[in-house]
Specification:
- The structure is a homodimer of 241-residue chains.
- The first copy, chain A, is built from 7 helices and 10 strands.
- With 241 residues, chain A is of the alpha+beta class.
- The longest helix of chain A is centred in the first third of the chain and has 15 residues, at 12-26.
- Strand 10 (235-240) of chain A pairs antiparallel with strand 7 (181-190) of chain B.
- Chain A binds a DNA duplex (19 and 19 nucleotides) through residues 11-13, 37-39, 47-51, 53-54, 56, 67-73.
Chain lengths: 241, 241
DNA sequence: CAGTGGTCTAGACCACGTG
DNA sequence: ACGTGGTCTAGACCACTGC
């Protein structure tokens, strides 16, 4: 196999990179799996090992694969621990990660609202799966979360008996959907009556609202998640660079 | 000139990279300045152009230099616009950057509190410059900000008549200090009486508190900044790649 | 036009993990 | 011992910029 001539003006390493992404997206290379080595990829596409190396290195810096010297290159896997490390940004006063549990999790299927359609980039009449849950820390309510997912991407998810704590792990293992990046919009809001009751605080208590959109391999929205958090001594950490 | 033999076991490109950082830190290469090209750097350190290239590319991906094809490689410059783009994370409902002004800016010199010492990594009896200011958007108060800076890094700053709006620009232009990354800790708090009065809101109004530590080239803290924001329809955007 | 960074090659050897 | 990724070299040509 070799590269098509059509993209002749684009760098070879970029073309190789996209072909490798296709393999991950199609499931030919599954999460956690060892992929072909640099020399085999180079030979297959008819480029030098250095060019194949750059393609793979770019994927590694994008977080799609993990390179391990002496062992090989592996498709990134969303183990619960990995998700927590990568996309979970809550830490306590000592700087330790806050790891929440889930409670009272409910899922349902519904026609997407106009807001859901525009946020998730859906067509009219598209359906969404809505999940609402309370997340706890040491048994105390930490946040109230509502999640909207395109039904087309996650068929049958609403009917599952058990919704796991680490959703991104489920997305990948059961639906082959990889979360590659997230945009979190943060602001402070006053707790409304219902949220206050759920979290066990007085109405009007300041809460951190996290409005997240998660994106997949093709950079299209996969999930819209709104969390209202009563953090106590914890905080959300945003690192720039 | 060539590399010392002592670091013989560390990669050449890493050694070259650090020597280049030294030049930026020492002021030999100033912000905005064109640095030597790949071939000259390679010749100077006795490595191949590819190795010099990797050292420079690493600096570029760290954001310390900017490469411009056909022109050369330049040390990053903290123009007001650049700082706003890079370290300012507030956006309005339409996704446009919120650009605040400063008002009622006051600076003073004081002995560092124990909290300031531990946050900024200072010795006992070290002095800090404290800055307090109100930041506005379209003439309305947006946030109240208090800033602590090690006096050793910014001598005489407290005595300046004018404190500019974009501090990181001043740090670099007047003190040769480059901010390379920031850690923001975010939480929601209720406005106390004084902050509420300053921001023109009712006491108890939920505010977004941003507790930031800014780091320099050597990864040591340069600034501790705490902002209390009444954002209105705006939000803080945190992107996770 | 000359000079820069960007891409690409075809080799070489090293460091690491596993059998 | 073997295969992997990691480093390094010495060349080549292309694309862009400014004079």
């Amino acid at each position: 196999m070799s590269l098509p001539d059509k993209d002749a003006n684009r760098p070879l390493y970029a073309q190789v990179r996209e072909r490798l992404i296709d393999r991950i997206r199609s499931g030919e290379w599954k999460p956690g799996q060892l992929i072909a080595n640099e020399f085999d990829i180079a030979a297959e596409f008819g480029v030098s090992q250095g060019t194949a190396r750059k393609a793979i290195s770019d994927l590694a810096s994008e977080g799609l694969v993990v390179r391990r010297q002496g062992r090989g290159t592996f498709v990134v896997e969303h183990t619960p621990a990995h998700v927590l490390f990568r996309f979970f940004n809550l830490f306590d006063a000592e700087g330790a990660a806050v790891i929440p549990d889930s409670r009272d999790c409910k899922a349902s299927l519904a026609a997407a609202s106009s807001e859901e359609r525009s946020t998730l980039g859906l067509e009219r009449y598209a359906k969404v799966i809505r999940i609402a849950r309370t997340r706890t820390r040491n048994g105390r309510p930490l946040m109230r979360e509502t999640i909207a997912l395109p039904e087309a991407l996650f068929p049958g998810l609403a009917e599952r008996q058990e919704i796991p704590n680490t959703l991104y792990d489920l997305f990948q293992k059961s639906y082959g959907v990889l979360v590659t990046r997230t945009d979190d919009r943060l602001c402070a809001v006053a707790a409304d009556a219902q949220t206050a009751a759920t979290l066990g605080v007085a109405p009007g208590t300041p809460l951190l609202k996290i409005d997240r959109i998660a994106f997949g391999l093709d950079d299209r929205p996969l999930e819209w998640r709104v969390s209202h958090c009563y953090l106590g001594d914890a905080h959300y950490l945003a690192r720039t660079r």
